[in-house]
Amino acid sequence: MTHVKATHRYWVKAQLPAALEPLREIAMNLAWISYPRAEDLLRRVGEGGDDFDGLDPISTLAAASQEQLDELAADPTYVARAKALLDDLRNSLQTPRWFQLHHEGELESVAYFSPEYGIAQALPQYSGGLGVLAGDHLKSANDLGIPLTAVGLFYHHGYFTQSLDENSWQREFFPDLDPATMSLTPVEHRVTVPIDGTEVVVGAYHAQIGRLSLYLLDTDLPDNSERDRRITDRLYGGGPEKRLRQELILGVGGMRYLAALGIHPQVFHMNEGHAGFLALERVRLLMADHGLNVDEAVEAGRPANVFTTHTPVPAGIDRFPRELIDRYLGWWCDATGVAVDRLMELGHEPGTEPGVEFNMAVLGLRTAASSNGVSQLHGAVSREMFQSMWPGVPVEELPIGAVTNGVHARTWISREMHDLLDRHVGHNWAEADADRWRTVYDVPDDQLRAVRSSSRDRLVRFTRFRLRESQLLAGQSPSEVEWTDSVLDPRALTVGFARRFATYKRATLLLRDMDRLQALLLNRERPVQFVFAGKAHPADEPGKQLLKAIAEVATDPRLRHRFVFIEDYDIEVGRMMYQGVDVWLNNPIRPREACGTSGMKVVFNGALNCSILDGWWAEMYEDDVGWAIPTAIRGDQDHRDDIESHNLYRLFEEQIVPLYYEREGDGLPKPWLDMVRSSMARLCPQVEGTRMMREYVQRYYEPAARRSTGMLADGAQSARELTAWKQRVTGAWPKVTLAAVHDDGALSDLGSDLTVSATVELNGLTSQDVEVQVLHGPVSVTGELSTPSTTAMQPHDEQPGVFTAQIPCTRAGTFGYTVRIVPAHPDLDHFASIGCIAWVTPEVGSDDESV
Q: By mean pLDDT, which of 6-10, 66-70, 401-405, 816-820 is the weakest?
């Protein structure tokens, strides 16, 4: 048979009866399609379907038969349910939420820029954790009523779909995505962005996320050249030049598109360095609108910018060579009158050769007054990674904070668990506080086990279905794939592992001892089964080798009924796994997992985590909510992998498996269910996305809006004054010194105060320009201050250049102090931001530096 490929496509869609028009509005709102009532209605259109099929509402409506639609339109009960649901949707868009009810600050609007968004399976514009987090960010912001508008790119081929060849090697396919078949509306506005000497025309599609708007920018327009139309063809496709072109569209084009829509945000949130060029566009606009020079414009723009970093490794940061910056941002230099050398300084990482490479994370950190990592540990790792930007400042004081990620629980939770929580925690369980979540302890064993069993059974059916389909597509006959009908046991302990196949995530850690693995898989009385899924980046050969190793075990006839790999990992595969597994496995190389939100999603579904103490697990783990894999701290990586693989097996053999199969007289696994309840009661209120978003509002968005309003008032006069002050301070700072430090005795009585005085030379600066600080606290065996307290020293009334402070002696023991001078200004976001700090040196006289 000759295979003929279609050169053109067209759609034939049924006409939606007037009585069913509410379905269209419901289907166009991506925050609603995963809610049970909406899902029930839309699945009826698709003639039911399996409860594990991904729901694509617009395609479902478009492809439905006219007979099916007419039949539903003639069903008064169905029509009434659709109308009632639409009424609820519209009411939800107007009902005051947390932000409207509890917020009294200046914040009115936030713009959120991200290169990818994992909103729903029906909108495949994501590759992994960064995009899925961005989707949960939007949905959680909607739940709280936060006034946020999002900007991204529309990728016509998405990321890629995955299949494995006969050698278990990953193959990538890039589908053609038609926005007309998605929950998207084209927007009429057009803007242009200078790209390599051409004004590239940028359009957009609009997605509705509850009450929030997401604009996905697109260059695939007839006005553009063929090359420029392909700027938005693939997510993370091509090399550095392609990435730079995309990021200019996102940052510069996104800013221009919001302006064209009449949207003028107060706060600009950059989700990773990919969005960093928005800061340069803001600098250009501030220079043009307020007559500022480049330094003043950077100061004027900084307060409104929030930068979130997601990578704990330098290799994950976008860096562009000077040649590309010169070529693609020459227009910006011409428009602002700024030399390329000065532009390169904004992206220069100290310690690297100046003027050679432009670091997008450094640009974000330098142009944002607020920066954060995505877990407490990741915040600490980020401070270590970027400490060269603030020389002389203790790493723990660097201006990079942390907001631990959260997940949008309603997106990831099973229908059965959703209903259980509705009954026991309350209808708005997703926003419940810790006190209300403790009601989970009262859920009866049989109800909790029934929910877990139902979800596991669905995962088993889903896995068998996906394995069968992939084998048939690979050319196997129906008789050859009959083995898939018996894959997995609905009653066996089921462990899940699904993520990007990057080497540091160590997907193959389990394979380091195949004898022990087979003993777990093939145990007749207490079997363990593993479900794997994930993609390797198309250019990541080592990652593909890891995936191949997993897939080869999954095709071993002796093991394939207990060890499976599901191809083409996406949101729907993730949902099935999060809902159906009993244990979620995560074993990265610490501390290279920034957060690891997949483990959060299983918590709401009653599964338990077994993880390296990395990311979010490092701060939330307790011994009665899951398991921590002991880490090795010495030796090369291969040795560490051996030790940690052994530790992982010990956990399964000695703790996890025995606990799961322990049964009471009634046959219920009560000890296991007790741990599940503890996990849910303690962790759910901490890992829900609304907790994350409240933190962003209170700690970042509201202060940013307040500071930005002040900085831009009166023609940005505060920015001008702050810039001049910084220049004056940095000019004088090389000769700012601590001339002498004294205290009133090496031995103090408990309950007394130690008086410390410092004589300083300010080189023309005043006492209002600086803060002289004494850092004091217990002294470690190495002579370092452990957890020091900071006390501001006050200028002496009668002795110019002398500052004093009282240190209370509230505990007995050995203590110490040191003194430093830092810049101080009412509009300075952090003392370290201008790189000036003066410490007392060992040569400076002191009666005694320990008490």
A: 6-10
- What share of the chain has pLDDT > 70, as a percent? 96
Work out the average pLDDT over 151-170. 95
User: What pTM was computed for the model?
Assistant: 0.95
Through-space distance between the first and last CA atoms of the chain, rounded to whole angstroms? 92
Domain ranges of the chain: 18-94, 98-405+700-711, 434-683, 736-839
Given a contact cutoff of 8 angstroms between Cβ atoms, the answer to whether 185 and 197 are in contact is no
Domain 434-683 falls in which CATH fold?
Rossmann fold (3.40.50)
- pLDDT tens profile 786-843: 889 999 999 998 899 999 999 999 888 889 999 999 999 999 999 999 999 999 987 6
Contact (CB, 8 A) for 669 and 660:
yes
Phi-psi label, residue 358: left if phi above 0, alpha if psi -120 to 50, beta otherwise: beta
Superfamily name with CATH number, domain 736-839: Immunoglobulins (2.60.40.10)
With H, G, I as helix, E, B as strand and everything else as coil, classify residue 355.
Answer: coil
Topology match between the domains 98-405+700-711 and 736-839: no
Q: Is the peptide bond before 321 cis (omega within 30 degrees of 0)?
A: no
- Which CATH class, in words, describes the domain spanning 98-405+700-711? alpha beta
Per-residue DSSP letter, 159? S
Query: Is-contact 50 72, C-beta < 8 A?
Result: no
Locate the DSSP E strands across 134-276. Answer: 148-153, 161-164, 170-173, 185-195, 198-209, 212-218, 267-271
Residues 612, 644 contacting (CB under 8 angstroms): yes
**What's residue 747's pLDDT?**
72
Q: Are 531 and 499 in contact, with CB atoms under 8 Å apart? A: no
24 vs 21: CA distance, rounded Å: 5
CA 720 to chain centre: 35
